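quick one, 215 residues, struct below
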Amino acid sequence: MFRNRADAAHLLAQRFQGRELRDPLVLAIPRGGVVTGAVLARELGAELDVVLSRKLRAPGDPELAIGALAEDGQVYLNPSARKLLDLDDDYIAAERVHQLDEIARRKALFRSVRPQALIAGRSVIVTDDGIATGATMIAALQMARAKNPCELIVAVPVASPDRLCEIRRYSDEVICLLSPPAFWAIGQFYEDFTQVEDREAVELFRAIAPAQQAV
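---
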């Protein structure tokens, strides 16, 4: 059990001790992932950026992810979800448009602070506060991989064990502190899992950016 996202990220950063990273970049999935990412970036001496990825919601159940969409427009669909829910192409197209609008809104918030970081040739660590279905992480990894990092690492405090195998297919390495069989939701492993609002995430991102730009 973690006290909060920052506590989990401090423990996660310890897994990188003594490791050589090439011009490291931490890509955080907003919003909770920005808290995790900020701690990792500070402790690893890495640059921090965000990677915008949004889940595609199941009809009638917005908490259930049928897949995810990255800011470059790439879609990842969970094969079993599409089959089980009998999703049609019109629904998926409409949900994609809706989530692209939300990505554009968040992009305006974060890119007003600083431009997108370069990925090519770098050690890239993609992080969030946890992985449930894995859809948003996979969409983020697909986008990052297309930009040719020298290595692509997933670093999360907790993850559903049955999704880690799928995540490994899209990354070079997965670092995860907890992967318990009795997994229902990410929040069950945090004493404080208060929702992170846009303003908090952007201000945290802003607090990291000036020091990085001065290097």
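The longest strand covers residues 61-70.
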